[in-house]
Every structure is written in structure tokens, then in C-alpha cells.
């Protein structure tokens, strides 16, 4: 107990209240779900133990949440994993810090012998700190869940819902019909921007390609042979996709930048990181032109 932290730097522990509408989509649902979970657990425990103070429950929740590791456990009558969550607290492993790039240790569960181990990817020198990767979390997720951020986080992302994608496409001069929308939904590819991508992702480009299809190309499921083909995209089609996508990304960038100016100071940095992702994606097109 003595080595456990006494405080945490998460918004929940500090009592920070975000207006959900001001949060980027990438963290909005997680923030709502976290608040709900803490509230429900607190209510249950206080009914069972009226003498318990909320701040003690909040501390205990953070101790567990920041240290628990997802492991496939056998079902237990006293453990509710109806949401698919199976967790364990594993000594030593929970002390390792996060680095999504330089991590030398890979944490994994060996089901055959029932052990959870950390395997080194390379030789580790004496006195060198061992890092693991908690997952592909952007800075908003790291802050809300663990209470820290990284100066250069390649997992930063911009979520682009289908309705926003369609609006951007129309601004770029693409005639999007109900048939296009139906095919987009059936394809089900995400249209997100990631800081790790060298330019827009394959799935985002394919969604733009869907919206550029002619009616006859979509009829009777013909679009499947086009979208799922392993053949290289024709040069003229690829050029058209890039042309429209660049316009769409510039429009998206301006929209995010304008939204950033209107946001409360405590969340502006979240939106500024999204602007940087848009800038990087746009710069990819300019670099290819040079």
C-alpha cells in the first residue's frame, strides 16, 4: 500500500468537469463511459458501506484502473464481465511505463502455462528503464485514463463520421447519392485520419473512391469487385481521388481550426492536436507534387 500513488493527475481525480460537446469525438464516448462507471460503482459501494467516502472510492478506482491489465479469465460468479471486460492486476507489470515507440518489453498472456510475461524485444542494459505499450492511445485517452500526455504522440487521430465525410465530399464537388450512402454503409470502412499515416489511410481513400463511382458501377453489387480488387487503381482514378481528398481535408482542417477557437481553454489543446493531424495529411499531397 505504501508504494501506491496517493494522487492521480486524471481529470476525474482532479474533479475536472468537461462539457461533453466540447470534446473531440475521439475521446467523447470514453469520457462519458468513464464518468458513468465511476458513478455507478460509487453508488453501489456506498449502499453497501455507508461509511465509505467518495474520495476513497475514487482513489481505489484509479489504483485499479491505471494498473489493471486485460486478460482472458475464466468466468466467476462474483465477477461481472457482461461488457466483455476481463481484467487482472499483475504485480511488477503494472509498474512499467508507457512508450508507444521506444518500448522494449512486450506484455503477453501465455495461456498454456497460465503466466503473464514481459518479453524483451532487444537487449536491455542494466539500469535502463523498461517500457511497454499500453495501446494505440492518443493524448486525450492517455490523459483521461492515466493522467499524462506525450509530447509527440503518433497515435493522435481525427474521427470523421460518415455524415461529415459526405458533407466534405459535396463541398469538394462530388455528387453523393443515396446509393453512394448505402454502399458506404455496407463497405463499413472508417474514414479517420491518423498521425501515423503517411498521408490519408487506404480506407479513407477507398471511401472517397466509393463516392466517385458511377451508377452502373454500383448496380448489382459491381462495386465489390472494384473496391475489393487487388489490382492497382488506375492513374486517372487515383489522381481524381487525391484531387477531391485534398479539397476535403483542407475544408476539414478549416472547420476544426475554427472550432478550436471557440473551445474552452482547457480543451483547446485537444483540438489543436487534431489540426496538426490535418496539416500533416495535407502536407503529404504538397510533398508529392514537388
Number of domains: 2
The number of helical runs is 11
Tell me the CATH topology of the largest domain: set domain protein methyltransferase, domain 1
Q: How is the largest sheet built, in terms of strand order?
A: 1-2
Provide the helix percentage. Answer: 40-55%
Unreliable stretches (pLDDT < 50, length at least 5) are none
Give the beta-strand count: 8
Cα end-to-end separation: 59 Å
CATH architecture of the largest domain: Alpha-Beta Complex
The class by helix and strand makeup works out as: mainly alpha
- What is the name of the CATH class of the largest domain? Alpha Beta
Per CATH, the superfamily of the largest domain is set domain protein methyltransferase, domain 1
Note the run of SSEs as H and E. HHHEEEEEEHEHHEHHHHH
Strand content: 5-15%
**Rg for CA atoms:** 23 Å
Indicate the mean pLDDT.
Answer: 90
The main β sheet shows up as: 2 strands, antiparallel
Q: Which geometry do the CA atoms define?
A: globular
